[in-house]
Design goal:
The complex is a heterodimer of chains A (302) and B (449).
Chain A (H helix, E strand, L loop, with lengths): L2 H13 L17 H13 L4 H18 L4 H16 L13 E6 L6 H14 L4 E6 L6 H12 L2 E3 L7 H14 L4 E6 L7 H17 L6 E7 L5 H12 L4 E5 L9 H9 L3 E5 L7 E3 L2 H9 L2
Parallel strand pairs in A: 1-4, 1-5, 2-3, 2-4, 5-6, 6-7
Antiparallel strand pairs in A: 7-8
Chain B lengths: L1 H16 L6 H17 L4 H16 L1 H4 L4 H17 L14 E7 L5 H14 L4 E6 L6 H11 L4 E2 L6 H14 L4 E6 L7 H14 L3 E7 L6 H12 L3 E5 L9 H9 L3 E5 L7 E3 L2 H9 L4 H11 L2 H12 L5 H12 L4 H7 L8 H4 L5 H12 L3 H5 L6 H11 L3 H26 L4 H9 L3
Classes of the chains: A alpha/beta (302), B alpha/beta (449).
């Protein structure tokens, strides 16, 4: 199933969800107060957040006035454009330009880091790269085993240490291994941590430093893994993680459910952190580069 | 974000408090703020709509207009409605007439089922029960191993079988639990999407096989608007009996709690509040209500303080505070006790009117490292210096810095914070005389400074 269909089928299912369809807002009728109210609801229900939703709606109102738009269908296209414009503004190029190219995945507990690490490794491998996985989550019970199984499935080599050992030391060794084996891409998994835990955030910063000391300019990309079902707290997550180490982009996971992940608009708009990949399933190939248009269409349920 | 919203709401309420009579306009203004606060807290927008309507209806009626302090009345209605929605009392785990009690954990991927299953087992063990775990998540790589390792770490038994299908695993697991004379069996099922028909019918088969007394939905407290869809689908498929809210130790306001409660009608039975196995607590609806509303979880703080602080010491402290004899020695004691209470941020967030706390104290980061440093600095002072910090001239400060392996700036910073704290207590004393609320008084008594 390709991505468009995946989005569409997710959409079809969400229509039958508890809240039902939000109404054929764009099918016809005048552009009136009610239209804007309903629009706000669609955005808010997609986790865009009230303030950002209002900002979008205001901008839309302005444009509608300027372009003298009368039809709801046109308004829809305009709003799609607005959202696509915001979401396409970030740098999401993921071609390795250095060797080894180090990608580090961070995020809160249960967001899907380990699975995403495996999928990302598989994506690079399928593009013909020599990839190395690092089982940097030494804290959660059996997280290493989880990645080991993925390593077997995807045929990507794995560097690991004992459960409970210092992840920074592991990453130091992994960087040496990456250089010695002259791999193209290193994907580092890390333990899930709530962004409000000071010590755990410091640990992440240390990992970042250690990698950089071993390979200058590495990690080349730090990706924050965000669960699409997350609400407004995702902004706080992005802010805090970004304070501990520079976040280059997001992996938006679990988009195959009914959640639409609208909070990423806020993150892009406020923090200038783009979405790079989306996770849409449990299989290794269920990770795709982010497409702003699919995202916008799914968000507006059109 | 957290404190901003709390401040905003408090500001609105203050405006309401300031007026003798409430017009429809005033109520509407307050409702707008509450709507915004609830939406920002991730309460589902339909739930918010209903909530606002019912509060508004009650508020604009004579109940408010006729009362003497209309503002307070609105706050009361908001609080009552919210607590009413959250359920008005604490809810416990069901117990089977014929043991063992069967508890099934269900939920989306990554919500925290496996960790919570083990936390629950540990909680039950502390309650004098004999729990047993069954690993029925054969899909996520390493899930079975995770449950085995965690069970093992707390000395609980766990059944697993990587070859069988989940229904068979559960059946055999129950038999194994019976052989072990377990009185409660916890079944950890795989995380699944609520729209995955195949997987949803699997849990309903497991349910038919086990006929569990409890089917608990594990929900991530950070979930957004979509919480209602998942909760409703799970409820429809298996008929939930309760909810466990996880990852509540973060800074999320946890509006999902309200949404889930509303669409399933099920009580929230426990909350997960940390990475440690012991970090599972009973759910208090009234506290969650004030957390979502941002009114400060005063009760939780009091209880936390009571559990941690030696009562005699607290009394002595109160006496000292009154007489303004709070010394650096006490400061050090309090830091040590604080460490066992959790982060200062947590505690400050539980206080209402967070704005009364000086910035210097708010910004003080109480991580392990800085606590160790504080202890070292105070430990390097003489007895006299601790009781009378005003004698600390620059040469003494230098000596202390060298002795504690810190620098003079660190020593100065600590002394500054100490001064701020002394000042804050002076203010608290004044406020106390001016008729502090009962809660605040009790709070102050137990507050560890």
């Amino acid at each position: 199933m390709n991505l468009v269909n995946q989005f569409k089928s997710g959409l079809a299912r969400s229509k039958n969800g508890f809240m039902g369809r939000l109404g054929g807002l764009f099918s016809g009728g005048d552009i009136d107060e009610e239209f804007y109210d309903e629009l706000e609801e669609i955005l808010v229900s997609g986790d865009v957040g009230v303030q950002t939703s209002n900002k979008l709606v205001e901008k839309l109102q302005e444009e509608i006035k300027k372009r003298k738009i009368k039809e709801r269908v046109e308004a829809k296209n305009l709003l799609l454009e607005l959202i696509i414009e915001i979401m396409a503004s970030g740098q999401t190029d993921y071609e390795p330009d250095q060797k080894p190219y180090v990608v580090l995945l961070v995020g809160v507990n249960g967001s899907g880091k380990t699975t995403s690490a495996a999928k990302l490794a598989s994506l690079y491998k399928r593009s013909g790269r020599e990839v190395l996985l690092v089982a940097g989550d030494t804290f959660r019970a059996a997280a290493i085993e989880q990645l080991e199984i993925w390593s077997d499935r995807t045929g990507v080599d794995l560097i690991k240490a004992q459960a409970g050992s210092d992840p920074a030391a592991l990453f130091f060794d992994a960087m040496n291994a990456a250089k010695a084996r002259s791999v193209d891409v290193v994907i580092g998994d890390t333990a899930g941590r709530l962004h409000s835990r000071y010590n755990l955030m410091e640990e992440l910063n240390k990992i970042h430093r250690v990698i950089g000391r071993n390979i200058p300019e590495a990690p080349h990309r730090v990706l924050l893994v965000v669960d699409a079902t997350t609400g407004q707290n995702a902004v706080a997550q992005a802010k805090s993680f970004n304070q501990s180490l520079p976040i280059d982009g997001l992996i938006l996971t679990k988009l195959d459910g009914t959640a639409r992940g609208g909070i990423v608009i806020n993150i892009q708009d406020e923090l200038d952190i783009p979405v790079c990949y989306v996770g849409t399933g449990e299989k290794e190939e269920d990770l795709a580069p982010f497409n702003p248009e699919y995202f916008a269409r799914a968000l507006l349920e059109v | 974000m957290f404190s901003n919203l709390a401040d905003k709401l408090q500001d609105t309420f203050r405006r309401l408090k300031g007026k003798g009579k409430l017009s429809e306009k005033d109520v509407d203004a307050a409702m707008r703020e509450i709507r915004l606060a609830l939406l920002e807290a991730d309460v589902n927008f339909k739930v918010v709509k209903e909530f606002i309507n019912s509060v508004r209806e009650r508020a604009i009626g004579q109940e408010v207009m006729g009362s003497l302090t209309p503002g307070q009345q609105v706050i009361k209605i908001v609080n009552e409605e919210m607590t009413g929605l959250m359920g008005d009392k604490q809810s416990f785990l069901a117990r089977a007439g014929k043991e063992p009690t069967k508890v099934m954990m269900v939920g989306l991927q990554g919500s925290g089922k496996t960790t919570t299953a083990v936390k629950l087992a540990s909680h039950l063990r502390r309650d004098g029960r004999n729990p047993f775990l069954v690993a029925a998540d054969i899909y996520r790589p390493g899930a079975v191993k995770q449950l085995e390792v965690l069970s093992d770490s707390i000395g609980e038994k766990c059944y697993s079988n990587l070859e069988a299908d989940p229904v068979n695993i559960c059946r055999e697991g129950l038999k194994a639990a019976n052989r072990e004379n377990a009185d409660v069996v916890i079944f950890d099922t795989a995380g699944r999407l609520h729209i995955d028909d195949e997987m949803m019918s699997e849990i309903s088969s497991i349910k038919d096989e086990l006929k569990p007394e409890e089917i608990l939905l594990v929900v991530d407290a950070m979930t957004g608007q979509d919480a209602v869809n998942a909760a409703a689908s799970f409820n429809e498929a298996v008929g939930l009996s309760g909810v466990i809210l996880t990852k509540l130790d973060g800074d999320t306001r946890g509006g999902a709690a309200l949404s889930v409660r509303k669409v399933t009608g099920c009580p929230i039975k426990f909350v997960g509040v940390g990475e440690k196995i012991e970090a599972l607590e009973p759910f208090y609806p009234d506290r969650m209500a004030s957390r979502i509303l941002g009114m400060g979880d005063v009760l939780s703080l009091i209880e936390k303080a009571e559990a941690t602080i030696d009562q005699d010491k607290a009394k002595e402290m109160e006496k000292k505070l009154r007489q303004q004899q709070f010394t650096l020695e006490d400061f050090k004691d309090q830091m040590v006790q604080l460490r066992s209470m959790g982060s200062l941020d947590d505690i400050l967030n539980m206080l209402p009117e967070g704005g009364n706390i000086p910035k210097e104290i708010k910004q003080m980061s109480l991580n392990e490292k800085s606590l160790i440093r504080i202890e070292a600095i105070i430990g390097s002072m003489t007895r006299e210096e601790r009781y009378n910090p005003s004698i600390l001239n620059s040469s003494r400060r230098r000596r202390i810095a060298i002795g504690s392996g810190t620098n003079v700036q660190d020593v100065n910073r600590l002394l500054n914070q100490f001064n701020q704290m002394q000042k804050m207590f002076k203010q608290m004393n004044v406020a106390g005389k001016k008729g502090m609320s009962k809660k605040m008084k009790k709070l102050k008594k137990n507050f560890p400074f």
